[in-house]
Write a structure and sequence with these properties.
- This protein is an alpha/beta fold.
- The chain has helices at residues 22-31, 48-59, 87-91, 96-106, 125-133, 164-174, 190-201, 233-245, 261-269, 307-314, 335-339, 370-382, 392-396, 402-408, and strands at residues 3-7, 13-17, 38-42, 63-68, 71-75, 83-84, 108-112, 137-141, 144-148, 156-158, 180-184, 205-207, 213-217, 225-228, 249-253, 273-276, 280-284, 289-290, 293-295, 317-318, 320-324, 344-348, 351-355, 364-366, 386-390, 412-416.
- Helix 6 (164-174) links the parallel strand 10 and strand 11.
- Helix 5 (125-133) packs parallel to helix 6 (164-174).
- It is globular, with a radius of gyration of 21 Å.
- The N and C termini lie close together (6 Å).
- The mean pLDDT is 96.
- Bound molecules: uridine-diphosphate-2(N-acetylglucosaminyl) butyric acid (EPU).
- Uridine-diphosphate-2(N-acetylglucosaminyl) butyric acid (EPU) is lined by residues 22-23, 26, 93-94, 117, 122-127, 161, 163-166, 187, 304-305, 327-328, 370-371, 398.
Length: 417
């Protein structure tokens, strides 16, 4: 059980290199199950969720080998098992992608119900609706989702709400199906496009990823190849907000600036100076931030996964800001922890009102989920005195080398066991 310990009130300055996208990696690893041949995935983030999924596909019979810390060679030809029911599987959200991939390859899958960060109810009814529409039968017994199909036949599937997980899962199940599958009201996040690019590189026929309508023409087989994962939009946004909150000057490198548009326009609006290049954004604090209103929305809207980090930055602004969380119904649980530091935040259902404060004070905090943990790190960097953050395992699920990257920017942050 380790904790992070931060000595705050430090201005962070320098360059940071962003890792590969967690939410692309956790879909692409299961997607390799569909490939008969050798896949080499580059720019994989070195995070716990990737390690768990690697173990899961190895336990199903795949042969994998890390060529270096960020490059994994996978031969999924030898996979013989279509089940993943170990306890670690039910602790993570992205394990639901094993369902789509196993269904696509074997027409059968048995996977433990997914867990992940707790933001209230996180149903998977749209995933199930998609699998059923393709011809699968689904039962849930003892917390295990059991799926089988004689044939998978392409069809039109309209998602009742924009869902990242359902969009990717249906793509995975449909690439080897007969005929054409159309997903309407699809999610458009950069990792959706990345998973489609990966599958296409291996021989799939997917068009429209990144728009509301994705068409997948089934093929009989996917072949091996190399793929390089896109940079992590949320890790990039977290460091951009660290610069804004700590009155810093950070050049966030190895990113796709276009993915950051909703955040860059908000940062400009609240008074932050930004310099954009082809693959970097430099974020410079020059003046007191001003209050704003934000609503989280599916991409290209403001990401829910940057909501907690943005909220902490707005504690540094003049006046009262509001954030409406429209994706998840219970994603403000971490606010109680920030109140221990002197934050003045009022929650009314899915709306937070955030009053700028002169000073936050170090406190002993407990990370309630991954992005809340990142927000607590930002609060600790800003606060006077020492902050400790317990439950670091949440943060390790999604941020590679967080202390190392922050230390290089001048933070005083240590891990204690
Ligand atoms: N929803 C349903 N039914 C479904 C699927 C979703 O009602 O079958 C609802 C959800 O309850 C939510 C909304 O639709 O209200 C959107 O959920 P979505 O399916 O898009 O989320 P997810 O697939 O569970 C992924 C990311 C999350 C990120 C969300 C939103 C992964 C592994 N997780 O979750 O990432 O917050 O999309 O962008 O890709 C994180 O990285 O910290 C994280 C939580």
């Amino acid at each position: 059980m380790s904790k992070l310990c931060i000595q705050g009130d430090t201005r962070l300055v320098g360059d940071v290199k962003i890792s590969g996208a967690k939410n692309a990696a956790v879909a692409i690893l299961p997607a390799t199950i569909l490939v008969e041949g050798i896949t080499i995935i580059e720019n994989l983030p070195n995070i716990n969720d990737v390690a768990i999924l690697n173990e899961a596909i190895v336990s199903m019979g795949a042969v994998t080998k890390f060529l270096d810390l960020h490059t994994l060679e996978i031969d999924a030809t030898t996979i013989y098992k279509y089940s993943a029911t170990e306890p670690c599987i039910s602790k993570m959200r992205a394990s639901y992608y094993l369902l789509g991939a196993l269904l696509g390859r074997f027409k059968k899958a048995e996977v433990a119900m997914p867990g992940g960060c707790d933001f209230g109810g996180r149903p998977i009814d749209q995933h199930i609706k998609g699998f059923r529409a393709l011809g699968a039968n689904i039962e849930i017994e003892d917390n295990i989702i059991k799926i089988n199909a004689d044939r998978l036949i392409g069809t039109r599937i309209y998602l009742d709400m924009v869902s990242v997980g359902a969009t990717i899962n249906i793509m995975l199940a449909a690439v080897l199906a007969e005929g054409t599958t159309t997903i309407e009201n699809a999610a458009k996040e950069p990792h959706i496009v990345d998973v489609a690019n990966f599958l296409n590189k291996m021989g799939a026929k997917i068009i429209g990823a990144g728009t509301d309508v994705i068409r997948i023409k089934g093929v009989s087989k996917l072949h091996g190849g190399h793929y390089n994962i896109v940079p992590d939009q949320i890790e990039a946004g977290t460091f951009m907000l660290i610069a804004a909150a700590t009155k810093g000057d950070i050049c966030v490198r190895n990113i796709i600036p276009e993915h950051m548009d909703s955040l860059t326009s908000k940062l400009r609006e609240i008074g932050v100076t930004l310099i954009e290049g082809d693959d970097y954004i430099r974020v410079i604090w020059k003046q007191k931030l001003t209050a704003t209103q934000i609503i989280t929305l599916p991409y290209p809207g403001f990401p829910t996964d940057l909501q907690p980090q943005m909220l902490v930055s707005l504690l540094q602004a003049q006046g009262v800001s509001t954030i409406v969380e429209s994706i998840f119904d219970n994603r403000f649980q971490y606010v109680d922890e920030l109140r221990k530091m002197g934050a003045n935040i009022t929650i009314d259902g899915t709306k937070a009102s955030i009053e700028g404060v002169d000073t936050l004070y170090g406190a002993n905090l407990v990370a309630t989920d991954l992005r809340a943990g990142a927000a607590m790190i930002i609060a600790g960097l800003v606060a006077k005195g020492t902050t400790t953050i317990d439950n670091v395992r949440y943060i390790d699920r999604g941020y590679e080398d967080i202390e190392k990257k922050l230390t290089a920017l001048g933070a005083q942050i240590f891990r204690i066991d």
